[in-house]
Amino acid sequence: MNSGLQDNSFRLIVDLGNTRAKLAVYEGGRVVLLETAENPDPEKLKALLPEQFIPSGAIISSVAGDPGPYMKALGNFRWINLDYDTPLPFTNHYLSPETLGRDRIALVAGARHLFPGSDLLVIDMGTAITFDFINGQGEYKGGAISPGLTTRFRALHNFTKRLPLLNPVEINYLTGRTTDESILSGVINGIRAETDGIIEEYLHLYPQLKIILSGGDMFYFEKKLKNNIFATPNLVITGLKQILDYNLEK
Ligand SMILES: Nc1ncnc2c1ncn2[C@@H]1O[C@H](COP(=O)(O)OP(=O)(O)O)[C@@H](O)[C@H]1O
Ligand SMILES: CC(C)(COP(=O)(O)O)[C@@H](O)C(=O)NCCC(=O)O
After folding, report:
1. Alpha-carbon torsion (228, 36, 189, 202), positive or negative
2. What pLDDT score does 3 carry?
3. Three-state secondary-structure class, residue 54
4. CA-CA distance, 41 to 137, in Å (whole number)?
5. Does Transferase show up as a keyword for this record (predicted)?
6. Domains by residue range for the chain, with CATH
7. Whose CA is nearest to atom 3 of ligand 1?
8. Residue 163 C-alpha to ligand 2 middle, in angstroms?
9. What is the ipTM of this complex?
10. With contact defined as beta carbons under 8 Å apart, do 20 and 39 qualify?
11. Distance 221 CA to ligand 1 centre (A)
């Protein structure tokens, strides 16, 4: 990558999630750099960018801390700090738009870019699991928020006296024969059954629905769900790029 000069084709995308930050550089329509870091401070995030890099546009979305210090550390670029009043390539019917997660806004923009004109259910498996529905007319309606995989393991450990803290692993059993297996079955099969169940209910209402799965924990579930899904791990990044382009081209 040309790192020393301003080049109009480079755009910077930053997603601050509750567990991980993701930083991407696009050259035209292509991702040329993608980095992730667990809860980085602004300087650690800046270290992931090439020296003297100046993109022609940049966007940041945070559902964690204040994005201000991150924008300042990364550089004095032409920033969009994604907020509830940022112009979007879809209409937002959420009844509390001010509190809607910025990552959910991006997920919906990304999904609509991939499948324009379709009814869409977006499932993001991160710290929380979010379900987001947008219809084929581009009207975002809302969805659901549920505890994520790691959050469930932590909750069982933190709110009981005897349950150990487990890490996720792939399992292929229903009946746990030990404490560890019982926790793994409850959490992993529980998320699978919950996700299948929610998908079935949406499919009943919207038979042409397309289902898109994303997020750091999608790999545990992408091959286990009953229905056909489109899996893409970094849909927030895709959506932020769409929102950035939409605003720069206006
Ligand atoms: N290198 C990693 N560091 C931390 N979590 C990871 C990593 N790889 C996968 N994960 C999983 O991804 C989840 C976080 O997913 P992500 O979509 O990044 O969430 P968020 O957007 O909430 O930060 C974690 O709960 C963890 O299970
Ligand atoms: C639901 C979330 C915590 C998901 O965050 P994530 O798991 O991606 O880090 C985030 O989108 C959020 O803080 N939402 C605010 C509430 C809402 O969307 O209505």
Report:
1. negative
2. 44
3. strand
4. 40
5. yes
6. 10-81 (3.30.420.40), 91-239 (3.30.420.40)
7. 38
8. 27
9. 0.97
10. yes
11. 14
